[in-house]
Amino acid sequence: MTLPLALSPSAGIIGANIFFLGHLMNDNPQHNNASDRHVVTEPGGTPDTTLPLVVYALYLAGIVTGGVTALVGIVMAYVYRGNGPHWFDEHYRYQIRTFWLAMLYFAISGLLMLIMIGFVTWLLVVVWLVVRCVKGMKRLQEHREPDNVDAWLL
Predict the structure, then answer these.
(1) pTM for this structure?
(2) Which of helix, strand or coil describes residue 132?
């Protein structure tokens, strides 16, 4: 097996970091070899949906914990994406987008609190987050990809 140039010993630490960051930020990880996948499967041969469910639950718990558990969830989504069939990976992509969109919407709500309407927008973002997580959980239980992965709202 040959290493990509960014991971070769001659590339050094900087090359490895650039390769890692580029791979981490890629929304659509590529599978080079199906035998390299490490997927936990249920007895019926379908992927175990426990980890994506945990990520959704961590996002919901983040509403109460101030986002601390959501940080754990986003790390899990980045680590485990690319390890299953397309519909499974779309859930991780959906979770990653949900996290970053929620961060954007909460930041905007924080700014709007200066003019006293941020409390309303913050509440709307919480409702949006709950709806998006519940929709994702429902589709995950059906072993289907989420609807409108690239949507900014629902």
Answers:
(1) 0.71
(2) helix
